[in-house]
Write a structure and sequence with these properties.
358 residues, alpha/beta, Nucleotidyltransferase, domain 5, 2 domains, five-stranded mixed sheet, 11 helices, globular
Length: 358
Amino acid sequence: MRTDQANLQLDFGPTYAPPPAPERPDGNDAAPAARKRARKLKAVPLEPSPAPIDAVAEGSAPVPAAPEPAPVVPEPASAPRNDHEVLVFDVETTGTDKRRDQVIELCMQFGLEGPSRTWRFRPSCPISPGAQAVHGISIEDLADCPTFAECAEEIAAIFTQHEVIVGYNLSFDIDMLQAEYERLRVAAAERGSLPVAQLDVRGKVIVDPYRLWQQCEPRSLQHAHQRFVGQTFEAAHSASADVAATGRVLAGMLKNFGLEAHDWRGVAQVCDPKRPSWVGPTRHLQWDGPAIVITFGKHAGAQVHELARGEFRDYLRWVCEKDFPMHVREVCQRALELPAEEFLGWVKGEFGHGQVGC
């Protein structure tokens, strides 16, 4: 979980640099008017509310984001929430690069204030100094721990058994876990053996206290603990301390915001009112009627299948090669390979259409 100020931003991936313009037959570059400066993705801070991220040409003024509507609080559920279906989790990692870094600690708590279990894993890559400064775990601490692969089946099964997934600013945590399972899948395919179970959060109800609080009073986990639990939170940045604090914070939020009578699906709706339109666990791709649109970069708002059939196919190829979440790269790759109708049918089958959760 990343909760430091440098990470309280929407990170929609690296900057796209289009292919160079072809040279003229005479050896000169294309005319200056035909050359365009590569646009950069501008990360807009999440506080006080998330704003769209768009590509802005250098030297131009950013376009102000339209204000987010006030969160719509659903009607209380007829049945009480079942806290036994809740899984609170947090990870610590060797760094923040999903392609290279690995999970070294995972804690799961069963219910908002229930028992917890912690795993530590021996990585095959070094721990970055920045990450170690945050969580305090050294490579020596992990010398006698199992690898993630040794525990992957058990961990995936626990996620399968729980309907509601809770984590503070949890997109990072989900991405890092999914990257671990993707590496195991690729390794199994190369060996010709059966892959381990995959981490599947599709159809789960996702409740992020960070996003819930962000809709009302944006703050860090430490501020949240002081505000909703009534005491300071000193043991930050260990997985077990973070999940325990997250459970306490969410319980305090539900009471403070008048959401105790709502079921988890209703709470998730308050966290992210637009989540039902998301394709996968992030906002990079969203349903817009019968089509899927890309929500970041210079082509924000464009339909993915139209990009795949037009002159901007290189942009989707670039997305597939960069450090975007795995599901974003997979959807863009399928758009490049399949006819439009077949592509949209595949996405519906894999991710659903208009469902709460992932």
